[in-house]
Sequence to fold (435 residues):
Amino acid sequence: MDGPSGGLGPFEAVRGLTVEADLPPVVRVRQRLSDAALPDIAATTAAALEPLRARIRPGMRIALTAGSRGIRDKPAVLRAAGEALRGMGAEPFIVPAMGSHGGAIAEGQVELLADLGITEASTGMPIRATMETVVLAQLPGGPAVHLDRNAAEADGILAINRIKAHTDFSGAVESGLAKIVAIGLGKRSGAEAIHSFGPARLGHWVPRVAGVIAASGHLLGGLAIVEDGHDRAAQVAFLEASDIGGPVEAALLAEAKRLAPTLPFEAADVLVVDRMGKDKSGSGLDTNVIGRMMIRGTPEFVRPRIVNIVVLDLTDGSHGNGVGIGLADFVPLRLIAKLDLRAMYLNALTSGLGGVQRGQLPLALPTDRDAISAAVATCAPADPGRIRLARIRDTLDLEELWLSPALLGDLAGDPRLEVLGAPEPLRFEAGRLVG
Fold:
């Protein structure tokens, strides 16, 4: 995002701009989340793959999918799956299945996997990356069906992904195995083809594209990871290829939604998010958590209703891809300085209409204090004692929160919340939020 002189270009003009507001104190709170972690991920994964044993031939080359999301137990599941398949006589390898992420280049996708803890050393398998695809079919009135060339040339594909609510649409099947097959393995070309029909049609085309790939004989099946509220694997389930994108995957999505953490309040004036990133959510900020869809023509969430959102930083694992920044209202310049607009715009454009508003820049102010002050100053309550402010680390980590007394008062008696201290002022060092 550097300008010609090595600065921030037009954003340099706001470096001297300050915003003053009385900020409410906050109380540290712990939210009780669902706790259902598997005791032995490796054993569960191996057991789940037993249905494949009779189909594996010696020397069979099997491609395992690895996406661009920060899934805590994904490296462990991948490693266990690789070991189980080798024990059956197969030769497994990993293919990046992440559409256009990683700057839409093979090297960028391998680097992104490494940031997520997925390497040849950590998984015990080679990684074969390409952006080339083969076209399997042209759906009537719909997209072309693309498939990663390395995966297509393998003797079989095992899709592995987390099942969760999608950030762009609601449907029977959202983010999971069908998506990683249809969009992830479609690489940039396949992702663009599907997204070109608009976010509202993702729920229609994703399972159909995945169905074509399943019917082609390339797909052996999939391993679905369902997480508890602490982002730990609560289930690792094997799905036959014919079940991907159908009622079996839909049932796992319903369970994933039941276990997923949410913000404990219905409404707030200001939400402060310490960091956003592609390793936290495909949209940078999980729209299901913040209650904002921000896609023209798509209905907004009923809850939570948040007036202003402040995002303070971008994770290093995003590699400058700040897509989703348009979901925020205010950011500090330090976040702007981290943006790689090329990577961000490639992702936004690949997402079609779903990337337009989310790729737009919010109001950028010199410091964290200025950004938070602006959010407080522009929401309705004039009395700081009435400001309902919440702070979270990111939209993936909702166990620890900081709530203003007014917001905490709204939640009095909520059995999910444990108050951990007394009200304290937000602390800043050189304008940067600390603690």
Remarks:
- Confidence is low (pLDDT under 50) at residues 2-6.
- The chain has 15 helices and 17 strands.
